[in-house]
Amino acid sequence: MSTSVHAGIAPDWETIIPSTDTLNLSFASCVTASDGTSFVLTGISFIDDLGVHRVNSNGSIGWFSRYAGPLEQDVPAGITLSWDEQFVYVLGRSSVPGFGDADYAIIKYDAATGEEIWRRLVDGGNTGIDSPQDIAGTPDGGVVATGGFATPDEQRDFGTVKLSANGDEVWRRYYTGQGPFLFENDDGNEIVVTPEGDVIVSGGAKAGSSSNDIFTIKYDGNDGTTIWENQYGTSANESVRDLILAEDGDAIAFISGPFGLDRQWVVLRIDGDTGVQRWVTLVDPGQDESYGRITEGPDGSIYATGATDPDGDDGNNNENLITIAYDGQTGSVRWVSEFGDLGAGDSEYGSDLCVGRDGRLYVFGSTGSDSLVGQMFDRDALMLCYNTADGSIEQVSVLEFSDPASEDGDWLYRTGSDELGHILAFGVANSSDIIATRYTFEAACPADLNDDGLLDFFDVSFFVNSLPDFDGSGDFDFFDVSAFLSAFNAGCP
């Protein structure tokens, strides 16, 4: 049961996937299809398997599938959909026979039924722990994954691999930093795929000194040939926190780096065709920052969220949630918004964010402030609604999914959206259960399905071809047709 402490926005529905004595779940990641169906990846503690739950667009659970590797010691890494959304790909790390040996595990499921289509173990070629990090579908039905492949000297290289729709290896690429250093771990952290099928990977690698730089590499999707390589670094150790593909094809990376005893946020924009840095912006929002995600708005603005420590005292746990808006073309900071109390233990974190069809920015995370949760040592899920023009906070929603008298933690970690503009948020409830929620933020013109500001033949064509759940009931039926026609006839304001 959710409770809105402020006059916030209640979800359309919320679904809790409970942990049990034999199925102790830990949230890892999620992905949402265009029709609002979502797939949640979890770890299964005590047994160390991987789990995938399908959450239907009406909040009901469709299916649950479980993966157990050769030694049943598996760690979740990522989840994605095939390009046509008919299949689900899961990435994890599986321990295999041999002392301290682990490989990439890639599993393909039927999105409708949960049936396992195939599973593949990808060995980096040496004994040691291969460390998968991220996964993405490709336009030809295949899948690409990146992370770190173990080297003979107990280090790691970037390891990126492409599998076909049938699970056959198409190509693999290694990238080695400019060490050598003891325990030099070069890892691909984030991966995106262009509409043409090319692959962009970003991660940290040694750069010929003792520090880590960020290397972003674009590969030809057909054969893995390197198209371009971009290097960014300072004298500090940087790491990639998020990577998105902008509407114009540029790669935008969210980077953290310790600068002395402090850390700064770095947003880097790379030309998608040439690999040339278009701009980089360093912002120091406070002290000891933590990092959430970035997203692009319809107008090209870039938004980032996370948390900052306003007084630099690591012991009092009073982080504030911070959100920053950047001009997408120049990288200049448009606004900075900080939210939180200053009392010890009053901490807010931003984990993920997206722009709704109503033009507002929604940030999801968690709060521990006594003024919001009403119970000392409790944590509740948090959603903030921003005016994108100036960063003012228009709504604060605090959601309690556990017993209000308990000290269990609720936290929304990831978001997704469907073709009708519903925003879905996923995370943890009761400290150990999985929560899925959906919100409806009405567009100014809900029948404008292609978001071009007009009501015309193209919106009707979109409706006929996609048959969306327009009324939010969870099924397509006559009432969706009626609701769409009513909205279409009402016109745009």
Summarize the structure.
The chain has 493 residues and is mainly beta.
Give your account of this protein's structure:
- By secondary structure, this protein is mainly β.
- It has 2 domains: 13-453, Methylamine Dehydrogenase, Chain H (7 Propeller), CATH 2.130.10; 454-493, no CATH class.
- It contains 3 helices and 32 strands.
- It has a 4-stranded antiparallel beta sheet with strand order 1-32-31-30, with no helix packed on it. The chain has a 4-stranded antiparallel beta sheet with strand order 2-3-4-5, with no helix packed on it. Strands 6-7-8-9 form a 4-stranded antiparallel beta sheet, with no helix packed on it.
- A hairpin with a 6-residue loop joins strand 28 and strand 29 (393-399).
- The longest helix has 13 residues, at 478-490.
- It is globular, with a radius of gyration of 22 Å.
Q: State the CATH superfamily name of the largest domain.
A: YVTN repeat-like/Quinoprotein amine dehydrogenase
The largest sheet is: 4 strands, antiparallel
Strand content: over 45%
The first-to-last residue Cα distance is 36 Å
Major sheet: arrangement of strands: 1-32-31-30
Structural class: mainly beta
CATH topology tier name of the largest domain:
Methylamine Dehydrogenase, Chain H
In which range does the helix fraction lie?
under 10%
Q: Please identify, by name, the CATH architecture of the largest domain.
A: 7 Propeller
Q: Could you say which overall geometry the principal axes of the C-alpha atoms support?
A: globular
Mean of all residue-level pLDDT scores: 86
Number of domains: 2
Please tally the β strands and state the result: 32
Count the DSSP helices.
Answer: 3
Low-confidence stretches: 1-7
CATH class descriptor name of the largest domain: Mainly Beta
Instruction: Report Rg.
Output: 22 Å
